[in-house]
Amino acid sequence: MIVSIQHITKCFAGTKALDDVSFDIPEGSIYGLLGPNGAGKTTCIRILNQMIRPDAGEITIDGKPLRESDVERIGYLPEERGLYKKMRVAEQILYFASLKNMEKNRAKQELEFWIDRLGIENWCDKRIEELSKGMQQKVQFIATVLHKPSLLILDEPFSGFDPVNAQAIKDEVIRLKNEGTTILLSTHNMNSVEELCDNISLIHRSKQILNGSVSNIRNSFAGNTYEVVFSGYCDTLSTTLTPSLKILGKQVDGNLTKLQIELMPQVSTNDAIQFLMKSGAIVSFQQILPSMNDIFIQAVKQHNESEHGENV
User: Do domains 3-219 and 223-287 have the same CATH topology?
Assistant: First the structure.
């Protein structure tokens, strides 16, 4: 399944929630939909789920316009969970499966698989209100994936989990991706973005301000900073003044000395390596890439400054 969102615009009471947003979700990938609160992510997800309609633009799946029947191919885990507190776990999950027109015997087979997979065997006859928040999250996740959707939309899927159970759900997300499921992941957790996402789109104040593969975006935001590791203790650079580079930090770890350096604009990496070799045996030399968290903050800040400049 390849999802294409092209030039989507949506207004509420004269305020734009989405302003000409476009991106493609490659088949069998995990696509991160990022942005501060109120950026427009939820509106985009609701349009994709056909809860609301866009004012302009088009969404296609497998090259065909989004249709009402496509809801059966989509699994949606909302940030605000929607379980019926008085229903028992098993009947709740099977009820949600019936809403996706899933055959009852097949639904029961899949339920057994997931109950064993996520270790909730002893909770199937419990009412939802009797479960912890984390256990309710597991139930909601199973209800979302039971019908084997080809497009899985996850909105903050790891909130409410302890680290062990959060990792268990991450492992399942990765497994589903490897089996061919296309996943749209909306999250504020930038560590999850780096760990899971192939591509991302960053929306801020209804506008798309960043779009592309995680690796390309990190490279594009990278500065002229590097980490060089020397074998043994290296102190000559720390006391040497040079127009080629600036030392930003230093750590000694056993038999290794790590330096963080910034190259001057006119200095090539080859020239830097040749210079550094005079100070000791180099074990490694690599560029320091910014984290997605740093990129998120920088991109939003730049956009705010740009908008402020336009309004002056």
Answer: no
Yes or no: say if 174 and 272 are a contact pair by the CB < 8 Å rule.
Answer: no
Q: Is the dihedral of CA 65, 68, 72, 74 positive or negative?
A: positive
**Strand, helix or coil for residue 40:** coil
* Alpha-carbon torsion (277, 280, 286, 290), positive or negative: negative
Domain assignments of the chain as residue spans, ordered by start: 3-219, 223-287
Query: At 218, phi and psi to the nearest 5?
Result: -65, -40
Map residue 161 onto helix, strand or coil: coil
CA angle 38/43/44 to nearest 5° reads 115
Residue 209 contacts residue 203 (beta carbons within 8 Å): yes
Which is it for strands 256-263 and 225-231: parallel, antiparallel or unpaired? antiparallel
Distance in Å from the first CA to the final CA of the chain: 45
* DSSP run (H or E) holding 203: strand 199-204
Two tokens at 130? 């009797």
Task: Note the CATH number of domain 3-219.
Answer: 3.40.50.300
Coil, strand or helix at 288: coil
CATH (residue range 223-287): 3.30.70
pLDDT in tens, 74-126: 999 988 777 888 999 999 999 999 999 999 999 999 999 999 999 888 888 99
Taking CA atoms, 225 is separated from 2, 41, 155, 287, 297, in Å, by 37, 33, 35, 6, 19
The bridge status of strand 182-186 relative to strand 30-34 is parallel
pTM, two decimals, is: 0.88
Average pLDDT value over all residues in the chain:
90
Q: What is the pLDDT of residue 265?
A: 86
